[in-house]
Design goal:
Elements lengths: L19 H7 L9 H17 L9
Helix pairs in contact: 1-2
Length: 61
C-alpha cells in the first residue's frame, strides 16, 4: 500500500540527527562498508515523519 501525503504548506519542520556518514550517504556517496549507512539514515528520517505526522488519520477505507 502506498501512503499519499499532501502537505498543507505550513512549513512544519522536523529534526533528525544524522552522522556525517549518514548525511553523505543520502547525497549519493558510497562507502566500502556497504549499503547499511544509507538504510539507517532513511530509517531515522521515516521514523521522525511517523512521529511528527499522524498518517493513520488520513487513511480512508
Amino acid at each position: 500500500m502506498t501512503t499519499q501525503f499532501a502537505p498543507d504548506h505550513s512549513e512544519e519542520k522536523i529534526s533528525v540527527q544524522l552522522t556525517r556518514e549518514e548525511a553523505l550517504a543520502l547525497t549519493g556517496v558510497r562507502f566500502n562498508n556497504g549499503h547499511q549507512i544509507e538504510v539507517g539514515a532513511r530509517k531515522k528520517i521515516r521514523s521522525a515523519f511517523e512521529k511528527a505526522f499522524d498518517f493513520a488519520a488520513d487513511r480512508t477505507e
